[in-house]
Amino acid sequence: MEQKHLTVAPSKAVNACGVSVSELEMAQNAQRIYWTAEEVDAKMEA
């Protein structure tokens, strides 16, 4: 794996971001608004 420059990380830690994005998606749908990728990134940074 080192030769291919792959990173190994615990699945729960890696999936945490996906869960957060899903929550943002649900909020967006509930409010019937659209966020750009940049807006989603900004919300994830906050």
From TrEMBL:
Transmembrane segments: none annotated. GO terms for biological process: amino acid metabolic process. GO terms for molecular function: oxidoreductase activity. Signal peptide: none annotated. Residues 1-45 form the Glutamate/phenylalanine/leucine/valine/L-tryptophan dehydrogenase C-terminal domain. Gene3D superfamilies: NAD(P)-binding Rossmann-like Domain (3.40.50.720). Coiled coil: none annotated. InterPro entries: Glu/Leu/Phe/Val/Trp_DH_C, NAD(P)-bd_dom_sf. This is Glutamate dehydrogenase, NAD-specific. It comes from human gut metagenome. The lineage of its organism: unclassified sequences, metagenomes, organismal metagenomes.
